[in-house]
């Protein structure tokens, strides 16, 4: 049997305030907000890349790292110091910049989602 065509559409993050989190990631990534309608917002990246935000008033963030990493976003960067200052200035919280893993630094976005800045090889 031939497998049906299945394409990736959005990566969707639940959050209490879709507009605020879309604005945070718009400033982090420089992508355009193409939709923002109360309970749903979308950022359009290059090509077919899109990041969406769905309203979830009862969203509870995972703890780092006691619950394990269930899902997180990785962003490739060239300058760790500049990128770290940038996301912190936008409201991210630093979680882990241990020397045990010099290739990435872990953060929490303003809604509580986990993301990493990863050095581009």
Q: Which class do the helix and strand fractions yield?
A: alpha/beta
Q: Residue share in helices?
A: 10-25%
| Poorly predicted spans | none
What shape does the CA trace take? globular
**What is the topology, as strand order, of the major beta sheet?**
1-4-3-2
Helical run tally = 2
Largest sheet: 4 strands, mixed
What is the first-to-last residue Cα distance?
A: 40 Å
Strand content: 25-35%
**What is the total tally of β strands?**
8
| Topology as a string of helices (H) and strands (E) | EHEEEEHEEE
Oligomer: single chain
Radius of gyration: 15 Å
Query: Can you give the mean pLDDT?
Result: 92
Task: Describe this entry's structure for a reader.
- It is a single chain.
- The strands form two sheets. A four-stranded mixed sheet has the order 1-4-3-2, with helices on one face. Strands 5-8-7-6 form a four-stranded mixed sheet, with helices on one face.
- The longest helix is centred in the N-terminal third of the chain and has 12 residues, at 18-29.
- It has helices at residues 18-29, 80-89; strands at 11-15, 32-36, 40-44, 50-55, 73-77, 93-96, 104-108, 114-119.
- The chain is built from two helices and eight strands, in the order βαββββαβββ.
- The mean pLDDT is 92.
Could you provide a short overview of the structure?
This protein has 121 residues and is α/β, with parallel strands linked by helices. The chain has helices at 18-29, 80-89; strands at 11-15, 32-36, 40-44, 50-55, 73-77, 93-96, 104-108, 114-119.
């Amino acid at each position: 049997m031939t497998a049906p065509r299945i394409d990736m559409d959005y990566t969707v993050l639940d959050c209490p305030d879709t507009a605020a989190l879309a604005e945070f990631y718009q400033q982090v990534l420089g992508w355009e907000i193409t939709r923002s309608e109360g309970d749903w917002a979308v950022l359009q990246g290059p090509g077919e890349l899109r990041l969406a935000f769905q309203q979830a008033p009862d969203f509870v963030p995972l703890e780092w790292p006691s619950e394990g990493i269930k899902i997180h976003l990785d962003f490739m960067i060239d300058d760790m110091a500049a990128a770290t200052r940038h996301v912190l200035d936008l409201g991210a919280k630093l979680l882990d910049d241990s020397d045990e893993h010099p290739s990435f630094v872990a953060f929490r976005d303003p809604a509580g989602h986990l993301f990493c800045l990863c050095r581009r090889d």
